[in-house]
Amino acid sequence: MVELGPGTGATSAAIEQQLPAGGRHLGVECDPGLAAYLRRSQHRMEVVQGDAAELGQLLAEQGVDKVDVIISGLPWALFPLEQQNQILTQITEVLRPDGVFTSFAYLHALPTARAKQFRASLQARFEEVLITSPVWRNAPPALTYVCRRPITD
């Protein structure tokens, strides 16, 4: 499984609790300082410093061709459409046909043009996009996109 943008590892710990024995957890983090922190604090996660827009290459360097699950903590609403598309293309190329891509979104960002573009891009790239109910106890409140069956040309 691949985690994009693990940051300080808040989600990483929960992922590792659910990861089956023998499962592999790769974290792709672009910030060098956060990547170094994760290497020290997340003992089971293999940390790869790099840009998610180069996900296929980063995974190939780790001996990985296809993945079952990708979880994203990336701030999609801050990314221009071109950057969103570059990363989503990489995701759909490395995700197995029966794989799952999940990403959370903060509710306050949903009305923005970039957040709307992201949602439309998901719906164009996956056969199924489920949107969870908001988690109001999260600070700030968020929902999750659960995307299945990537569409590849």
TrEMBL record:
GO terms for biological process: methylation. Gene3D superfamilies: Vaccinia Virus protein VP39. It comes from the Bacteria. One of its GO terms (molecular function) is methyltransferase activity. Residues 2-99 form the Methyltransferase domain. Keywords: Methyltransferase, Transferase. This is Phospholipid N-methyltransferase. It comes from Tamaricihabitans halophyticus.
